[in-house]
Design a protein that fits this description.
By secondary structure, this protein is α/β, with parallel strands linked by helices. The protein has 24 helices and ten strands. Strands 7-8-9-6-10 form a five-stranded parallel beta sheet, sandwiched between helices. Strands 1-4-5 form a three-stranded mixed beta sheet. It has a two-stranded antiparallel ribbon with strand order 2-3. Helix 4 runs antiparallel to helix 6 and helix 10 crosses helix 18. The radius of gyration is 31 Å and the shape is globular. The termini are far apart. Keywords: ATP-binding, Nucleotide-binding.
Length: 645
């Protein structure tokens, strides 16, 4: 594998040089827990009933009376691992795999710690400290660098261990809890604390080989999370976070405090739909087809998509429509297209759906499930497609007393992931949110959907003839009659008509704003007039904020990319997919179209129409509820007075 400009190789000989130290840690060491409490403290033998073998030592030295005096207990991970299945005296293949993975991860972490020391003043300060020549003025810096090294080594150990174990994970899952014995004095102490904590978790949870793998992997994930959280307030980490290191033998790339993951595809069992099997929904179908091809332009070496750089990539979208209009069919079509393209190119494709079964009654678990879903789809080593079907049931409105704590957690995770301060759009994945009742979705979360797909199903007489013929199949003798089958589904002609329909607003509330602004400034043919129209919309709906303008401009940029990548580029990967990033960028640049006033007006109206539609529905639902409640109160009052009289 060729390294990118920001990657360096972590040499195999450097890693293997740390094997003896890693093996020694596996065999055993002594550690006195300083933060955590041992779950099963060893009991000393008694000389006689009621008389302990040794008295607890209490220091009389001033200043030491509050220090922990717990005796160090031996940590023997190899023995612990091999005792996971008491029914067999031989080491099982999975036990050997765990031992090898821990040793390999420890060696990689120690090699990274050594490299960090050489790239910073830490190496020189360590040598000066050993020689007794450490300047007093640099003791503070020395301590901070040791802490940074401990964070680096802890995260790399957890990262490498989770990565190496990921191919061996099964259906078993274990909730191991957080890493309590997390120490940052220096790299050696940090590893001692982490391995002591792992030993405790294995004793508690690893009853068989499946639980052994799940517990070790869960520990690795928790160790990474803890190290990444602590690193946010630590200094001297630039040399580690500013570059990437590649371990060739494992195909592992370490990028700061970002978890690495095996680029594995998910096996799809859904029924795929062809584009001609989706009747109606012309704009939604067209944009889904374009987005499927956009994803394939992602460059795995550069970890960036030319469409994301040029501004025409759809990272999140909202598909809304009445029940039965084809949202599921649209998902099946888009997933099928991406799956077909990825199989042809040999790319790993990962599809995941976040459903109502991911909402858990345990506090914090729903948020963890949502974060795991997002991270899995965001994995830069795959082409990802994540869907959230019926999002109005899954993500609760903030302040809604009927929403569960789990739904509120999910809303917070999705808001941060889709447009948070740490959101990075590489262009390798997209998230689709689908709902029959988008007005019930939290306003801020809904506005994080960069594009709107109106899934309105069949609309015209021709659409209904086409869908009837499609669903009836071919096992009948009923004549078709005077109709050109599927001609109305010709995508370019249908899309052009659909876009043209948005030259004027379709919602009554927005049409009033359109007429008023048009009377004031005339035709909307300049940026100033368009801005006046946007301000008029904001005065009519205060939820029309700066984020709405960003979503509109992003949609306009997508329209500027209003071309479909040629099918032959997908069928023959050498023509486009396997070209280098700069060549892809140049090829896409040649196809880009100029932005016109008509495009901007249509996209403003499309977006604003959807917001007015959501607001009107939401208000009507609320009013209907209040009317019903008032009617109940009136009837209750009438019956109450009749009863008294």
């Amino acid at each position: 594998m060729s390294l990118t400009s920001d990657q360096m190789e972590l040499r195999e000989e450097t890693i293997r040089a740390h094997y003896p130290a890693a093996t020694a840690l596996l065999d055993g060491f002594d550690h006195a827990p300083r933060v955590a409490q041992a779950r099963t403290p060893a009991r000393a033998e008694e000389r006689s009933p009621g008389i302990p073998a040794a008295r607890r030592f209490r220091s009389t030295t001033p200043g030491l009376v509050t220090r922990r005096t717990t005796r160090p207990d031996g940590v023997h991970l190899r023995e612990r691992i091999e005792a996971a299945d008491d029914g067999d005296t031989l080491v099982s293949p999975l036990q050997a795999t765990v031992e090898q993975a821990i040793r390999r991860a420890l060696a990689i972490a120690l090699a990274m710690g050594e490299g960090y020391g050489e790239r910073t003043p830490l190496g020189d300060l360590k040598r000066a400290n050993l020689a007794g020549d450490l300047p007093v003025a640099r003791k503070g810096e020395f301590t901070e660098l040791l802490t940074a090294e401990a964070l680096v080594v802890s995260h790399v150990f957890g990262n490498a261990l989770a990565y190496l174990l990921s191919p061996h994970l099964g259906a078993t899952s274990v909730e191991v809890g957080e890493v309590e014995e997390f120490l940052t004095d220096n790299a050696q102490v940090a590893l001692h604390g982490a391995l002591w904590d792992l030993d405790q978790k294995l004793e508690q949870f690893a009853g068989d080989d499946a639980q052994l793998i799940a517990t070790t992997a869960g520990f690795a994930e928790q160790l990474m999370a803890k190290a990444a959280a602590r690193a946010q307030g630590a200094g001297h980490l630039g040399p580690f976070t500013g570059a990437a290191w590649h371990v060739e033998a494992d195909d592992l790339t370490l990028r700061g405090f970002t978890p690495a993951a095996k680029a594995r595809s998910t096996k799809l069992t859904m029924t795929f739909k062809k584009p001609n099997e989706v009747v109606g929904n012309h704009i939604a179908k067209y944009q889904a087809m374009k987005l499927a091809k956009m994803l394939m332009a992602y460059d795995f070496e550069r970890r960036l998509n030319p469409f994301a750089e040029l501004g025409g990539f759809i990272f999140t979208f909202m598909g809304d429509g009445k029940p039965g209009t084809g949202k599921t069919t649209l998902i099946q079509m888009m997933a099928g297209l991406i799956d077909e393209y990825c199989r042809n190119a040999g790319y790993p494709f990962r599809y995941q759906n976040f459903g109502i079964d991911n909402i858990d009654s345990y506090q914090g678990k729903s948020g963890q499930n949502a974060k795991a879903f997002v991270q899995s789809v965001l994995d830069p080593g795959v082409i990802g497609f994540g869907t959230i079907d019926d999002i109005d049931q899954i993500a609760g409105k903030r302040g809604d007393r009927q929403s569960s704590a789990g739904q509120q957690e999910v809303t917070a995770v999705f808001m941060e992931a889709f447009a948070g301060a740490n959101t990075v759009v590489r262009g390798n994945c997209t998230f689709g949110m689908f709902s029959n009742y988008p007005e019930n979705v939290d306003d801020a979360l809904r506005q994080r959907a960069g594009a709107r797909f109106l899934v309105d199903g069949p609309q015209t007489r021709e659409d209904y003839i086409d869908i009837l013929a499609l669903l009836l199949g071919k096992r009948h003798d009923i004549p078709l009659g005077a109709h050109d089958l599927y001609a109305a589904q010709e995508i370019k002609r249908a899309v052009a008509a659909s876009f043209a329909a948005h030259g004027r607003p379709q919602e009554a509330g927005l049409a009033q704003v359109w007429e008023r602004v048009g009377a004031q400034v005339g035709p909307l043919d300049t940026i100033a007039k368009l801005g006046t129209y946007l301000k008029g919309i904001q005065e009519a709906d205060e939820r029309f904020t700066g984020r709405a303008i960003k979503n509109i401009t992003d949609a306009v940029k997508v329209r500027a990319m209003d071309f479909e990548l040629p099918d032959e580029w997908m069928e023959n990967p050498d023509l486009f997919l396997f070209r280098d990033y700069d060549a892809k960028l140049a090829m896409i640049e040649e196809l880009r179209q100029p932005i016109t006033v008509e495009m901007v007006v249509q996209e403003i109206n499309r977006y604003a129409d959807s917001e007015f539609r959501y607001a009107d529905k939401s208000d009507e639902v609320a009013i209907d509820g209040m009317v019903r409640e008032m009617g109940r109160m009136e009837e209750a009052k009438k019956r109450y007075l009749e009863g008294k009289g």
